[in-house]
Amino acid sequence: MKRILNTALLLFFLLLPYSSAAGEEALPRWGVGLNYPGAGIKYLFNNRLSLELRGQFADDIVIGGLRGNYYFNPDSNAVLFMGIESDYVSFKGEESKGHGFAEELYLGIEFFLLSRFSLQVDFGPAFIILKDKESSLSVNGIEYVVNFGLNWYFGSQQEISRRKTGKVKQELEIEEEEYEEE
User: Fold this and answer.
1) On the CB side of 101, how many CA atoms lie within 13 Å of its CA?
2) Burial class (CB in 10 A: 0-12, 13-18, 19+), 23
3) Which of 3, 28, 39, 129 is paired with 161 by a 20 to 30 Å CA distance?
4) Model pTM score
């Protein structure tokens, strides 16, 4: 758990300077998501950076952690992103139970079906370390992970979607340039 807290603090302090220094208007926006098989809550620092608290639950496995995302083309309906995730893993099987950690790098795409509703998929390698409580045996290795999710965004300063904000800003800049030329 201490490892996740350290990762969260590291991500927060790495992303904080970019929340206002990226030259974009900050849009405080929250999002909630359903992923297979779990849920998460996301905070967008601006159009390019977000931090997400996520949990996943399956048969006798609980995974909880943080992810940080960087969005390459936030003005598009199909937003490409990359990120890093750090998770705490707890498991209980017929013959063993224990805990461990997972660290993942991923690439993904988020399709906006409506202005505040999106479908998301990401894929990447995860380094996983698991330790059995009874025998103290440990296992580690790399597994490839695919995540699917649905997101709903709320709480913006304006009633326009995150991806349309850049388009509105571009239109205003074009109008200003045309006005200056006249």
Assistant:
1) 11
2) exposed
3) 39
4) 0.71
Residues 6+ apart with CB under 8 A from 16: 45
Supply the CATH classification number for the domain 2-181.
2.40.160.20
Q: How far apart are CA 40 and CA 31, in angstroms?
A: 8
End-to-end CA distance of the chain: 61
The kind and range of the H/E element at 16 are helix 2-21
CA distance 53 to 154: 16
pLDDT tens-place string over residues 114-132: 888 999 999 999 999 999 9
Query: How confident is the model over 168-177, as pLDDT tens digits?
Result: 555 666 666 6
> Which of 67, 166, 151 is closest to 113 using CA atoms?
151
Reading the block at residue 20, the tokens are 């206002």
